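re the bet — no i am not wrong, look at it urself. input seq straight from the record:
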Amino acid sequence: MILLKLNGLTKKVSTGYSFKSLLFGFLYPMARGDYKGASRHFIYGCFTFGLNILFTPFLYNRKYIKEMIEKGWKPAEEKDIDYLTRKFDYVS
């Protein structure tokens, strides 16, 4: 779990495997407000006849964090910077 901040807002973001993505499929990103991720889940599901449920939970949180950083969110604490630097090649 890492913390990201933007304009005084702080958001907890899970890292690693996404059990919620496994259980709820495209509804989980939609509930988070990640409509791009929800559409990606849904489209992958259509093309793979639902087999995407086997690999999407491994990838979803990583992709979500990368997209948030691209939108301008920054790590809130030093440990979060260290984690993002190791896992995502983040440069502040």
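see?? The beta strands are 2-6, 9-13, 74-75. told u. also The chain has a mean pLDDT of 91. so pay up
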